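quick one, 200 residues, struct below
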Amino acid sequence: MKIKLNYQVATKVALLAGVVFLTGCVSIPASIKGTTPTPVENLSAVREAPELYIGQEGRFGGKVISVLNSNNQTRLEIAVMPLSKYDAAPRLNTPSVGRIYAYIGRFLEPSDFNGRYITVVGTITGIELGKIDLVSYQYVKISVSGYQRWNQMQSVVLPPSGWGYGSPWYPNYPNSPYYWNWGPWGYPVGEAEIRTYLTE
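---
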């Protein structure tokens, strides 16, 4: 998505968004750190040889496809995506690598989770047969010990800055070869891009 906007306003918005982005991505949240240094994150490997991973700690994240409550537990169906190496959030705009059933030992309100991005950590317990539409599918099961729901945020990405180019204070103005590429007072002329990312 692209928009045209006032550069001075956009600069302030971008700086504020940058602070939020950095504070949200400095480390993995405590709720999904797990108890082992390197929880299993390779879903394809688990699906190919689940018997090798049963009992190990796994960490997977993606988009919640469905929520099913039963007695004393909730099952989340998650379309798993690769995780960020910085904060273990699902990497947006990457294709799903498969699906899992994540079991949480209490009631969860479906409207709080359906369609949301989430990362879960817990014990890999095996494979459960299910269906995607009319197609049989083998879901990796995980008994969840912790989870993190993610919020979608947006930041403004500005055109490359020409600080000073085209400004009355810039030498040889307006004969500078850069003059026609930049607006008055050195602000770039062009379209800003809106980027979406996940944060706590």
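The first strand starts at residue 2 and ends at 3.
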